[in-house]
Predict the structure.
Amino acid sequence: QVQLVESGGGLVQPGGSLRLSCAASGSIFSIYAMGWYRQAPGKQRDMVAVISSGGNTNYADSVKGRFTISRDNAKNTVYLQMNSLKPEDTAVYYCNAHQVYRGDYWGQGTQVTVSS
């Protein structure tokens, strides 16, 4: 079992920045691939960024060059630094932990709203 708690969401103006954090507990954090997903109203949940247990990263095309995912295994935490935010980035952002033999776990989500 893995428990995930996101924080750092909020209201920001277009062009601004936010940093999301996801704190994990309950299992061996370092063996999990970690990811950030988002879901806007009326839309499906989409991958934003993922980072493997070895530190390899992958991003959705819409956020490349603006968002950065990172992890601190000593703190059992994964981060999403979001810069140059756009109104279309508005969504609930979810943290995910994935391990092929142990399954998938999700956080409760944190709201990000980009608006002037």
Q: What stands out?
A: The longest strand covers residues 91-99.
